[in-house]
Amino acid sequence: xxxxxxxIPSISTKELxxxxxxxxxxxxVRTPAEYRSGHIAEARNLPLNRISTYHRPTTEPxxxxxxSGARSKQAARLLTRQGxxxxxxRGGMNQWSGPVRGGK
Length: 104
What we know:
Structural class: alpha/beta
CATH topology: Oxidized Rhodanese, domain 1
CATH architecture: 3-Layer(aba) Sandwich
Oligomer: single chain
Strand content: 15-25%
Shape: globular
Number of helices: 5
Number of strands: 5
């Protein structure tokens, strides 16, 4: 097993809330339907099955979120291999208590 917890930095949803700003790179790796059901305003949807298509030059960290944290960990592994600095959001949208856009 890949030493995931040692290699992929992570933050809580509370920590993410304090970092949100218009310039943050926050990728929501859930399906488009999940994203439409409610997402963080600053998040861009890039489903896990398309994460390998991400090719944007950035020196900023990329924050990754999904529903529970499992898919974002997978995405983090893939983007780390491509040389990006990534940070996984532990607990995902299940733990998010801030405002969401979309949904019911």
